[in-house]
Write a structure and sequence with these properties.
single chain, 753 residues, mainly beta, Nuclear Transport Factor 2, Chain: A, Beta-galactosidase, Chain A, domain 5, 3 domains, 26-stranded antiparallel sheet, 5-stranded antiparallel sheet, Amine oxidase, oxidoreductase, Cu_amine_oxidase, copper ion binding
């Protein structure tokens, strides 16, 4: 072999070795993919949580087919139904009675029958009405029973039904026809022929029971941005109470501070030159007030939360478990998220924790704004919980769950990925202490929390609903408001009702009040209510009798009656208020859970208001009543369109019954007053706009249960703190040298619109 050949081969060998070294070094620098270590499974009989499970899409379809074949009346698909038709409005789970469920869960009793609740609008009857049927057993229905009279004491009047999408479509067509009667005015005021204007409903609809007369506010519509910030000053009052759409009428027109009998009259005044017109340009694209399109290109990515060994929680069917917690979750299409059978360390703490209602009450000097009291349950808090955006609405690696609903159509729909579950590191110690005297050590525990979240879009507002479960045994419930403000056209003394946020836009003041039901079962069903607060007593110093001191002492009181346990809104409440068990802990105190409310609520409607009873739950920041199967909810979706004769009036729940050693329910109101300002454009931010409450163990345990957490950290001056066996923090440098397995980004939230 020639020398030249040897040198060539040697060069090739060296090049190959160099390439292999580079590959190996690169592979060494590239983190490995994180390996999933399954969390420990909590003991619970398989399938027990399904007693609370939302209906499947197939079960909903079975209910629809059964009703179509068994009621003996023609049923029109609600998406096409006229007011004079019969239709299925919505279908949901009929939650079994608590006694039946507890016999099944705790005493080995029979599984309760699985049933659905179906709500039908009967317009094609001599006396049109709303009827509710329980249909079962599922998945193969064989019976139905009318429960309307049992629940409400009689048939529900037809005018109380929520407005359907089809009805809104017919109203819009009427308004468009009326707008054509004022072509020159529209061209001058709005650069419009009416077709580029969009309507926004108000509610309630009138002044007395039986009314179905609604103010609609008109806005410039610009694709890709929120029209809610572009009012044109025009509002119309439509009477849509007649069963025949042809009989609906436009009753009144409002423009820039003045009222007119019709759009024709408005046009006449404009032509005569007697109408003061504010000439608005059609908003253009990204320059429009309220555009959310990014103004800068994407920057470097921010911090990413991930689990080096996979999620430490487990989701199976409708149940999630996490470090001693067990929670069953679901979604009502109207009232939104609902949790059942919340247990910690195997003991039930809460039987039911559910959202009841969200009230948004506005002020304005325009008719639409001043008359608006939205009860969002009637629009569909759960139904309008759309797909969550991975990495923004929830952590990228969260678990996402689909929800099914059937409303205003005979075909079930699915909101994919509309509920998320994740473990959240709050970057705050749950507890900690650094000892710098006698002995030197550090002890602490990260505040990691399990979060169940969903987000509802109710027209302009987005509500973020959070339910959080802490290692200390505490439950935290929180709601944040974001989205677009609603606005009125700025005119006259508009700033008496808000702030100007655009050339012709008044951000109108309003309050958000949210109501929850909390059925606590603290160490059993039978509980009492105890308050504790501080007082001062003036005493002589025991060691110096010529001097006196102010000594704080604890005042305890066991409340006996419901009236004592109804705490008015915005009135100071006892600082400690607890559901107490008859059984003591190790130290002789009643095992208890404390309710701690965090709220900045506005003022409740005056009790002499004609519609106040429909939202009478808002009188109280907290009311505790005896639990009754016939009082499942604090309000009704039918209250929105007839608040003057409410179908359910919460005030009637409070009738001074005994609340000592009874099965009790806490009804909690939280909220805040919102006066919109410039920084609410384009959207209200969540910072400072969150309220909620805690359920905290109070002598329920013998010590803080988080001391058993495997995440606990203890460092001392005489140990090798860098050793992996010494603390979980020392292991992170080896355990977390991996890259999370991120699924490709996808969003299909627009598919069901």
């Amino acid at each position: 072999m020639s020398l030249k050949t040897v040198l060539i081969l040697l060069g090739l060998a060296l090049a190959t070795i160099f390439a292999l070294v580079c590959v190996l070094l690169t592979r060494e620098r590239s983190p490995r993919t994180c390996q999933h270590v399954p969390p420990e499974q909590e003991d619970m009989e398989d399938g027990q949580s399904l007693v609370f499970a939302d209906l499947t899409a197939e079960e909903m379809s079975q209910v629809v087919r059964y009703l179509q074949g068994q009621l003996g009346v023609p049923l029109v698909d609600a998406s096409r139904a006229k007011p004079w038709d019969n239709c299925i409005a919505w279908v949901d789970l009929q939650v079994p009675a608590k006694a039946e469920v507890l016999r099944f869960l705790d005493a080995g009793g029979a599984r309760p029958a699985r049933e659905a609740l179906a709500v039908l609008y009967f317009g094609k009857q001599p006396e049109p009405n709303i009827s509710e049927y329980v249909v079962g057993p599922l998945p193969t229905p064989a019976y139905h029973r009318d429960v309307t009279v049992q629940k409400y004491g009689g048939k529900v009047p037809y005018h109380r039904r929520p407005v359907t999408g089809k009805e809104y479509g017919d109203i819009n067509a009427l308004i468009q026809r009326e707008l054509k009667k004022a072509p020159r005015f529209l061209a001058a005021c709005c650069e419009s022929d009416g077709t580029n204007l969009v309507i926004l409903t108000t509610a309630p609809r009138g002044f007395k029971s039986g009314d179905r007369v609604t103010w609609f506010v008109l806005f410039h519509n610009v694709a890709g941005t929120g029209y809610y910030l572009s009012p044109v000053g025009l509002e119309v009052l439509v009477d849509h109470g007649d069963l025949h759409v042809s009989q609906w009428q436009l009753h009144k027109v409002f423009y820039n501070g003045r009222y007119f009998a019709s759009t024709g009259d408005l046009e006449q005044e404009f032509v005569a030159g007697t109408l003061e017109v504010v000439r608005l340009k059609q908003p253009q694209g990204d320059a429009v007030l309220g555009s959310m399109k990014p103004r800068r290109p994407p920057g470097s990515p921010g911090p990413l939360q991930f689990e080096p060994q996979g999620p430490r929680y487990s989701v199976r069917n409708n149940r999630v478990t996490f470090q001693g917690w067990s929670i069953t979750f679901g979604m009502n299409p109207n009232t939104g998220p609902r949790l059942f059978d919340i247990r910690y360390r195997g003991e039930r703490i809460v039987y039911e924790l559910s959202l009841q209602e969200a009230l948004a009450l506005y002020g304005s000097n325009c008719p639409g704004g001043m008359s608006t009291r939205y009860l969002d349950g009637s629009f569909g808090i759960g139904r309008f919980a759309y797909e969550l955006v991975r990495g923004l609405d929830c952590p990228y690696t969260a678990t996402y769950v689909d929800r099914h609903y059937l409303a205003e159509t005979d075909t079930p729909k699915t909101n994919q990925n509309s509920l998320c579950i994740f473990e959240h590191d709050s970057a705050l110690p749950l507890r900690r202490h650094f000892s710098d005297s006698q002995s030197f050590y550090y002890g602490g525990l990260r505040r990691n929390t399990l979060v169940i979240r969903t987000i509802s879009t109710l027209i302009n507002y987005d509500y973020i609903w959070d339910f959080m479960f802490h290692a200390s045994g505490a439950v935290e419930v929180r709601v944040h408001a974001t989205g677009y403000i609603s606005s009125s056209f700025f005119h006259g003394q508009g700033t008496d009702y808000g702030n100007r946020v655009g050339p012709h836009t008044l951000g109108t003041m309003h309050l958000h009040h949210i109501h929850y039901k909390v059925d606590l079962d603290v160490d059993g069903q039978l509980n009492s209510l105890e308050t504790q607060d501080m007082e001062y007593e003036f005493v002589k110093d025991p060691w110096s009798t010529q001097n006196t001191m102010e000594r704080p002492y604890l005042r305890r009181e066991r409340l006996q009656k419901e009236d004592e346990a109804a705490f008015p809104l915005n009135v100071p409440m006892p600082r400690y208020l607890s559901f107490v068990s008859p059984h003591p802990n190790k130290w002789g105190h009643p095992r208890s859970y404390r309710l701690q409310v965090i709220s900045f609520a506005g003022k409740h409607l005056p009790t002499n208001s004609s519609m106040e009873r429909s939202v009478s739950w808002g009188r109280y920041q907290l009311a505790v009543t005896r639990r009754k199967e016939e009082e499942p909810t604090s309000t009704s979706i039918y209250n929105q369109n007839d608040p003057w004769t409410p179908t359910v009036a919460f005030a009637d729940f409070i009738n001074n019954e005994t609340i000592t050693n009874e099965d009790l329910v806490a009804w909690i109101t939280v909220g805040f007053l919102h006066v919109p300002h410039a920084e609410d454009i384009p959207n209200t931010v969540t910072v400072g706009n969150g309220v909620g409450f805690f359920l905290r163990p109070y002598n329920y345990f013998n010590e803080d249960p988080s001391v058993d957490s495997s995440d606990s950290v203890y460092l001392s001056s005489d140990q090798d703190v860098g050793a992996c066996g010494a603390s979980p923090l020392a292991c992170l440098s080896s355990v977390a040298t991996c890259a999370p397995r991120l699924p490709p980004f996808h969003f299909g939230g627009f598919l069901n619109l």
